[in-house]
Amino acid sequence: MPNRCIRPGDNPDLTKERETCTFDTDELAANLYGSRRNLERRREISQKVSADPDFADPIPHEFLSREKAVDATAKKSKVIFQKWKNLVKPEEMPHLVNEAVGIQGFPLALHHAMFLPSLNSQADDDLAAEILPRAKAYEIIGTYAQTEMGHGTNLRELETTATYDKTTQEFVINTPTRKAMKWWPGNLGKMSNYAVVCCQLIIDGKNLGPHNFLVQLRCEKTHEPLPGITVGDIGPKIAYNTTDNGFLALDNVRIPRRQMLMKHAKVSPDGTYTPPIHAKLNYGAMVHVRAHMIYSHGHLLARAAAVATRYSAVRRQGRIENGGPEVQILDYQTQQHRIFPQIARAYAILFAGQEVRDQYAKTLEGIANGQADLLPDLHALTSGLKSVVTFMGGLGIEQCRMSCGGHGYSDASGLPKLYGVQIGGCTYEGENMVMLQQTARYLMKGVKWAEQGKSLSPSIAYLGKKSGKSLIGLKGGDITREHEAILETLEHTARRLAIDASQLWEKRIKGGECKERAWNGVTVEMNRASRVYTRLFMARSFHRRLLSSPSSIRSVLSDLFSLYLHYECVDMAQHLLEDGHCNGGQIQYLKKRLYEDLTTLRPNAVSLVDSFEISDRELNSVLGRRDGNVYEALFQWAKQSELNYTDVLPAVKNYMMPMMEENRSKL
Ligand SMILES: CCCCCCCCCCCCC/C=C/C(=O)SCCNC(=O)CCNC(=O)[C@H](O)C(C)(C)COP(=O)(O)OP(=O)(O)OC[C@H]1O[C@@H](n2cnc3c(N)ncnc32)[C@H](O)[C@@H]1OP(=O)(O)O
Ligand SMILES: Cc1cc2nc3c(=O)[nH]c(=O)nc-3n(C[C@H](O)[C@H](O)[C@H](O)COP(=O)(O)OP(=O)(O)OC[C@H]3O[C@@H](n4cnc5c(N)ncnc54)[C@H](O)[C@@H]3O)c2cc1C
């Protein structure tokens, strides 16, 4: 079967890997990206970016100072949003940005991820008509400023206020304390001249909770901060260093009434407040990013898996049998066990990410028609997915990094940066432990609804089912039935953990604790239930994708799905065993199946990551390059280090040489 990545001059080990491929890599890539046409467009964009001299990098970003890297990123962003703007569809934009700029952020990241979505979904018609065309035409750049130095998670305690002044029909926006400064918003520090700012709405002395307001921060002509505004960059971070995450203080800044985002909640000129149809519609921009970040985080893990797999096929170290040749490190079982589950998880996350994006679009449609009934389900799912996927992705990328040995530690591998970017997602858009509790709240309601025989939405329908005995290992031979047996076991486990957590909570309440304190005493168990609910959703989503896949890729997807299920079950063995639903023999069976899966997938490993269809430029990894010619490329990469511009560094000349000289003269 064809692997379409084979080219003359490639590393022969990689070519051999590709020759053993049992499926059509283009078919799988087309399935992943939705269609052949999408795949072709993806390639076209990659090729055009590589050929565009405006995107050329004289030296890799890794060797630039932060300021120079920000500069280079801004320069490329201008090219994207002027020259390229009309050449790509909105849905192709993330790929174009990844190709042209990279993953560490760019001046319009928050403009796209949160500013435009907030205005689109929360501004009333008048404000939208005035500001959206300007924002869409990039006449202005905006961000989303919610988090403060003292509060990020607990939005109810944000301190920034928007106090309505009826006499002038203005809001007075104020930062009352040092820790009330906005702190962290992306692109706030230097790039944005506008922001959606989240403030406590105060009318006649009454606090009506967090609401969003459009605030101009900088002069449109000079880009200087406007009077009453203190704004700047918060400094270097683990990653995202081409993003100017910023601080902001507002000193009684006045804005017109109509700059409150009033599509849902409204304040009339006389100060009458009308609440929204759902109390949390003001939080819509967060749901938007949570729904979209699942897919983009799947892509980050896919990159790491591609780097680790290709490099492991090229790298030869040690022997399996005495007297045999040095083997490709991909032949070690430990290496396969480290990397192959990451390939499977990357596919699983990408599939789940696509499903949740569709669910988000449906929910938004409902809200536009005055129906917010799909929102609780979406909020529970996106909260769980963002937490599970970012954590899983971070662990996975770190496994991939370690699997590349010493070279994985070098920025040349691209893996340290990938890890830094990925783990940001564990914190932003709601700290993971906190968001898992949001999912758990929904599950607790689901447990009650199930007890009362009420109808349940599809994502929690399993809460209303009855458990049979686990058939894992008892349905031998037939892979389809084995998949079903495992999915049923996962359903049982997700249900059992939710019911157990609910009972533990109730027990504490009956024991005299208030609901909230009792909740805090069971949150570890609550979060376990949320994780398994989410992992069940991911497994079900992968299964739906497998069942709807064309026959040409069904077999390889089925192998990958088997590995995914076996790995997840072994990873969650504690939960499967805890209530005796599975026994030790069944866990041993799952492990045996997992080791078989590693062997089954081995010939297709490189081809599976080739189907992620990530160009060399986008991958930005000397170890993961498509042609596998890593050693020469490593040397060429290192030569660009600024420490190599001269043979004798000033640091050596000024300090080390005199020290050695002095010590020699003492002898
Ligand atoms: C094209 C797009 C591309 C995007 C691609 C992605 C790339 C991304 C690049 C990187 C960008 C990074 C940008 C980062 C941005 C940020 O981090 S912005 C700041 C994000 N901040 C947070 O997420 C804060 C987390 N905190 C909260 O969300 C809330 O405070 C809370 C924890 C949810 C609690 O809120 P609170 O008001 O106290 O509510 P509760 O009492 O807990 O709950 C009451 C009920 O409301 C429900 N609920 C809560 N939130 C929502 C929601 N968003 N939607 C719907 N419903 C919600 C909650 O479940 C409760 O329901 P009931 O149980 O029924 O009462
Ligand atoms: C890379 C990056 C980009 C960001 N971009 C933006 C942006 O564009 N705009 C913006 O407004 N913000 C942004 N943020 C801020 C981000 O949204 C917050 O940092 C995040 O929501 C976490 O809030 P916190 O910092 O207050 O953490 P804290 O809430 O202080 O968390 C600290 C610890 O306390 C625990 N904790 C807190 N509350 C609870 C609870 N109720 N139950 C159990 N444990 C709890 C947490 O689990 C965590 O372990 C960004 C952050 C990062 C890292």
UniProtKB/TrEMBL annotation:
<keyword id="KW-0560">Oxidoreductase</keyword>
<feature type="binding site">
    <location>
        <position position="147"/>
    </location>
    <ligand>
        <name>FAD</name>
    </ligand>
</feature>
<dbReference type="GO" id="GO:0003997">
    <property type="term" value="F:acyl-CoA oxidase activity"/>
</dbReference>
<dbReference type="InterPro" id="IPR036250">
    <property type="entry name" value="AcylCo_DH-like_C"/>
</dbReference>
<dbReference type="InterPro" id="IPR009100">
    <property type="entry name" value="AcylCoA_DH/oxidase_NM_dom_sf"/>
</dbReference>
<dbReference type="InterPro" id="IPR012258">
    <property type="entry name" value="Acyl-CoA_oxidase"/>
</dbReference>
<dbReference type="GO" id="GO:0071949">
    <property type="term" value="F:FAD binding"/>
</dbReference>
<keyword id="KW-0276">Fatty acid metabolism</keyword>
<feature type="active site" description="Proton acceptor">
    <location>
        <position position="429"/>
    </location>
</feature>
<dbReference type="InterPro" id="IPR055060">
    <property type="entry name" value="ACOX_C_alpha1"/>
</dbReference>
<keyword id="KW-0576">Peroxisome</keyword>
<dbReference type="Pfam" id="PF22924">
    <property type="entry name" value="ACOX_C_alpha1"/>
</dbReference>
<comment type="similarity">
    <text>Belongs to the acyl-CoA oxidase family.</text>
</comment>
<dbReference type="InterPro" id="IPR046373">
    <property type="entry name" value="Acyl-CoA_Oxase/DH_mid-dom_sf"/>
</dbReference>
<keyword id="KW-0285">Flavoprotein</keyword>
<feature type="domain" description="Acyl-coenzyme A oxidase N-terminal">
    <location>
        <begin position="24"/>
        <end position="141"/>
    </location>
</feature>
<dbReference type="Pfam" id="PF14749">
    <property type="entry name" value="Acyl-CoA_ox_N"/>
</dbReference>
<feature type="domain" description="Acyl-CoA oxidase C-alpha1">
    <location>
        <begin position="283"/>
        <end position="444"/>
    </location>
</feature>
<protein>
    <recommendedName>
        <fullName>Acyl-coenzyme A oxidase</fullName>
    </recommendedName>
</protein>
<dbReference type="GO" id="GO:0005504">
    <property type="term" value="F:fatty acid binding"/>
</dbReference>
<dbReference type="GO" id="GO:0055088">
    <property type="term" value="P:lipid homeostasis"/>
</dbReference>
<dbReference type="GO" id="GO:0005777">
    <property type="term" value="C:peroxisome"/>
</dbReference>
<keyword id="KW-0547">Nucleotide-binding</keyword>
<dbReference type="GO" id="GO:1904070">
    <property type="term" value="P:ascaroside biosynthetic process"/>
</dbReference>
<comment type="pathway">
    <text>Lipid metabolism; peroxisomal fatty acid beta-oxidation.</text>
</comment>
<dbReference type="Pfam" id="PF01756">
    <property type="entry name" value="ACOX"/>
</dbReference>
<dbReference type="InterPro" id="IPR002655">
    <property type="entry name" value="Acyl-CoA_oxidase_C"/>
</dbReference>
<dbReference type="GO" id="GO:0033540">
    <property type="term" value="P:fatty acid beta-oxidation using acyl-CoA oxidase"/>
</dbReference>
<keyword id="KW-0274">FAD</keyword>
<keyword id="KW-0443">Lipid metabolism</keyword>
<feature type="binding site">
    <location>
        <position position="186"/>
    </location>
    <ligand>
        <name>FAD</name>
    </ligand>
</feature>
<feature type="domain" description="Acyl-CoA oxidase C-terminal">
    <location>
        <begin position="483"/>
        <end position="661"/>
    </location>
</feature>
<dbReference type="InterPro" id="IPR029320">
    <property type="entry name" value="Acyl-CoA_ox_N"/>
</dbReference>
<dbReference type="GO" id="GO:0005524">
    <property type="term" value="F:ATP binding"/>
</dbReference>
<keyword id="KW-0067">ATP-binding</keyword>
<dbReference type="InterPro" id="IPR037069">
    <property type="entry name" value="AcylCoA_DH/ox_N_sf"/>
</dbReference>
